[in-house]
Amino acid sequence: MPRLNFYRKKVRKIKLTKFIIILAVIFGVGFASYEGIDFFVRGLYVHALSADSALLGKVGISISTLSQSQVQKRLDNVIQSYSNTLNSQSQLLFQIKDTLNGVNKFHSTVALLNELGTTIGSKVSISSLNYKSISSTFLSFEQVQSADDSTSLNLEKKVIESSGYTFALSNSEDQNWYRASNESISVSDKK
Amino acid sequence: MNFNIFSTSYVGIDIGRYKVEGVRIKKDKEKIAITSKFSVPYSKKIFEGEELKDENEIISALNKTGKNLKLNIEDFIVTSIFPDKTLFRQITLPKMPNKSQMINAVKFQIVKELSIPSENITVEVDVEELEQQESVAAFIARNEDIEKFKSIFSKALLPLPDIIDAGYMKFNYLVEEKIKNGISFITFEDNTSTYLELFKDGKFLAIDSTGGGADDLKDNNDVDAKIHYLQLSDEIQRLGRMMLSRYSLPSDNLKRIIFVSEKMDYVNIWSDLFKDVGLGESKNYKEFLNLTDDIPLGAYNLAVRGALESAKIKFLPKKS
Predict the structure, then answer these.
(1) Are residues B166 and A6, on separate chains, in Cβ contact within 8 Å?
(2) Which domain holds residue A152?
(3) Residue partners of A27: CB distance under 8 A and separation at least 6
(4) How far is A37 from chain B (nearest CA, A)?
(5) How crowded is residue A66: how many other Cβ atoms within 10 Å of its Cβ?
């Protein structure tokens, strides 16, 4: 039987209320799907992290109650906190190391000399008062080539002497030890 | 539960020669049932011959029908243009792979034959058994008539119809399952012409027409009707036998001839006149389908046409 369409409307319309209901259903189904997938994924990661749950618990993370993103966020916070602590402790250790190396103050050298003197029990010679910090050989000092800051050098001499050490110059012409050139300055062992 | 986004309500609107009728049917899966129907006779004669003289009468009746049926934008609405506005041609064509090529070829033929610009016409073809056809049944309507029909709906403040069918097809869809075997005629009496459709095993073969129609039933009584249909019957018989001859069909294989009219009041008299003329079993359309008297036939058919667009259907038991 022929079906003749001398005119055929191209689109069929639906009422606005029906359109809104359909949209709501689509969004509802989408949201439910999202929740379903999220529940499934949560099951997967809870299973995957179950062996580490005690460790996570110690840092206040419960994988059974938190979503994946929440766990990740809290882990980031804990890691950041640990990192900050480590940074701060590391910084302190660096300061201690610097202090031990005697790079901050010359007084540290005295402490080191004191320590070394105690250890080896003999006279220690200082080659230079212009010390450098060389971590592996921090007690190797260069020879003084010119020393004209008598105030600071005398001050240091006093500090060393007050610690119980004596200074002696060798091959000095005028006995002004700090003006010496190509001379060796020695610090005696502790009296 | 029905999950269809679109409405499963189909509305047939039959703008007839004497009234506007509407039927709303509901399709539930494969079953359909009439949910409402409405009929508005014109207050006066609005056709002079086949020429429409008062469009406003149709617009008014259409508006009332739409309101009564509560038409809305979701309804799938099917209607048909007047029968005389559709031209039928059987055209021989080389075999073509698809409908659009066939329509273009038919247009080319029609343009040559009628000397009318191709952009002014709409062509439809019967694409059943496309591969096997040597000739094609082509139906032609002027775009001007189609647009005029659409504008009637707009003026009546109704949604545009989803489909505009041909007027002389508007009684076919309810019977198509019942004429699947043998040769059948459907005789449709319009106001000034009568159309005769020929089917073989349910397949449409041809349509032809003769003068004389329901406008001739002037006095509205049995005697007048009998005289009218006696005169018309001779023409119908002659036309029927000529069509059988044209398609080389044996008249002894005729199964049935079905009668339907724009005025159904006297169709029984008409069908009775064909009881013994050798054109098969003679049946009044309603009698053939066991329909109740008050169902608007054209509108019901057109509503079913809409439902047929999307699925196979079965009819629920008749409701009185």
Answers:
(1) yes
(2) 103-189
(3) none
(4) 25
(5) 16
Report the chain A residue with the minimal C-alpha distance to residue B147. Answer: A7
- Contact yes or no for B165 and A6 at CB 8 A: yes
The share of chain A scoring above pLDDT 90, in percent, equals 10
- Number of domains into which chain A is organized: 1
The predicted-structure confidence for B2-40, as pLDDT tens digits, reads as follows 556 777 789 999 999 999 999 999 988 778 899 999 999
Instruction: Say which of A5, A12, A14 has its CB closest to residue B124.
Output: A5
Crossing angle of helices B143-155/B55-69, nearest 10°? 60
- Tokens 């073509």 locate to B96
A4 and B124 within 8 Å at the Cβ level: the answer is yes
Domain annotation for chain B: domains and CATH numbers: 9-83+143-169+297-307 (3.30.420.40), 86-142 (3.30.1490.300), 182-289 (3.30.420.40)
What residues in A contact B161, CB-CB < 8 Å?
7, 9
Q: What is the pLDDT of residues A41-95, one digit of tens each?
A: 878 878 888 888 888 888 888 877 887 788 889 989 999 988 888 887 777 677 6
Write the residue in B5, B122, B126 that is nearest to A6 by C-beta. B122
Residue A73 lies in a domain: no
Q: Count chain A–chain B contacts defined by CB atoms under 8 A.
A: 68
Question: Backbone phi, then psi, for B206, in 5-degree steps?
Answer: -165, 165
> Does any domain span residue A1?
no
Q: How far apart, in whole angstroms, are the C-alpha atoms of residue B209 and residue A191?
A: 145
Q: For residue A7, tell me if it sits in a domain.
A: no
Domain membership of residue A139 (yes or no) is yes
